[in-house]
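Narrative of activities, Objective 1.

The group set out to show that a structural description can be obtained from nothing but a protein's sequence at a throughput compatible with the screening campaign. Below is one input-output pair from the validation batch, recorded exactly as produced.
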Amino acid sequence: MATGTEPPHIRSGPTAGPDPGAGPRTGVHSATRAAIAARHLRTDRWWLSPALTAAGLLAFIAYSTWRAFGNADYYAAPYVSPFYSPCLAENCVPMKGGPNWEIFGSWWGLSPALLILVFPLGFRLTCYYYRKAYYRGFWASPPACAVAEPHRSYSGETRFPLILQNVHRYFFYAAVPVAGILTYDTVLTFRDEHYAWGHMGLGTLIFLANSVLIWAYTLSCHSCRHIVGGRLRHFSRHPVRYRFWGWVSALNGRHMQLAWASLISVALADFYVYLIASGAFDDPRFF
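Output recorded for this entry:
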């Protein structure tokens, strides 16, 4: 069905519809767009996905803020919360054989979690998937495919503060050692509460699953895919890099699922340590 090239102006409120006397419009009702009065033609529940995304991210923000500033119940041998590892301040709880790196002296009086969370959170905040998630969920930019955003102009990520999203590749280099440290913490969970090796509890399985998901999410990153196989003119001349590029590309296709799974697993691992450290739960031992 053909439409005119001059769109009707739209009134807002209960009498929404064409308004010939209104001034010039922008966005989907600009002079260069088809004359369709409706803001969009979608009939499904398009709003559900951004709403659930915003709710999930808000829940994690609230939980992680509570735990990061709590500065308590983050270590119960042999488990250390991933929010507090590695512990970089002197005010950390001593962890035998654990990642105690007292880089910050006694002058640091805040929670030690604030020193380390900046790296994984910075990595996720600038992640390509998470950008899409919170742009849609919080800013409605745009709220969904084929649904016009309410903003009059669009500058992309070319201005402050969104231009800072370009540091994502550098946060990737920081996220890799963090994932390695969490793997080290997982190895330590094969000890008992007296630091003797040969222990395996429910927490060991939770930490193992979290480490796998953290590595899978980190390696599925678009920056990792570019580092492994980007800027190559001929894959045939780089068979090893091409093989790794294929593996990373397969993970990259599940980047969204891995982003959510690892976000849930890291919160679950922290909450499990909190339950044990606070005495609310005893770690079941398999051997």
